[in-house]
Amino acid sequence: MITTQPTRPKGSLQLIIQTWKDQIICLSPKGEGYNAYLLDSRNNNIINYIHATCDELRHSATNYDSLLIKIKQKYDGYLKEAVLNTIKYEVTRRAFRKQHEWIQASYQTLIEQQQLNVEQQIEQIGKLKQIISQQQQQVATIKSECRGQLAAMQAEKLLKQKEAEIAQKNLEIARLNQQLEVSDREIGNLKSELNKGMNELKLKYKWLITQFIQDRTEKQRLDNNSKSLQSCQNLFKKAQKRINLLQAENNFLRQENVDLYNQTKMLRVIS
Q: How many domains does the chain have?
């Protein structure tokens, strides 16, 4: 790799610095008005030109970075520091001044455009007022000439409007009458269905009464039969107890009879 050795200055410091000042280039922003922007030379981020700081203007709105590299390669020591400091200040001053002038020029153009628009609007409003004044005069003349005709036309229009309203009301009345007839027919049908339903309910009620009486009679009969059966069961239980008692007595008597028979038999043997 070939490295450039710093050279010794030729000429005065003022001349050297002026040589570098002549190489300063201020860049214009992209876009217009408030949306004008710069691209950050260090990271390519977008910087709003109007709000850019001095540091952002120096690095992104001038060729300061390339001059910085060249100066560092060309000089060293106090001369390098002197040139760098002076160029840094000069670049910043010029970039800031260009930003200020650009903002003034942009706003001046915007103001002039707005003034032009206002003047055009004022002129257009004046023409419109003149046209309106002429039309108002024409309307006044027409009204004066046609006042009688206008009154007659308005009366005729009002009459037609009333006739139309009456016709509309008649149509509404006819529609309501039709609805009333339909409602009457529906009411008649409902009454007929109601009478039919009432007759069916009466028949059903009579049948239920008859069925209730029959069920009540049958229940009474079953209750009586149940009572008779209960009495028979009680008699049967009593008879069963009596039979059991008699059987027990009979068994006892049989046993006594057997015992007596055995005793008699033994007596016969002894005698």
A: 1
Check: CB of residue 18 under 8 Å from CB of residue 52: no
Range of the domain at 94: 13-128
* pLDDT of 61 higher than 80: yes
Q: Does 223 reside within a domain?
A: no
Question: Which amino acid, 35?
Answer: N
pLDDT by residue (tens digit) across 19-53?
999 999 998 899 888 889 998 878 889 999 999 99
Assigned domain for 228 exists: no
- In sequence order, the 6+-apart residues with CB closer than 8 A to the CB of 25 are 62, 63
Residue 262 in domain: no
Rg (CA), the chain: 66
Q: Does residue 34 form part of some domain? A: yes
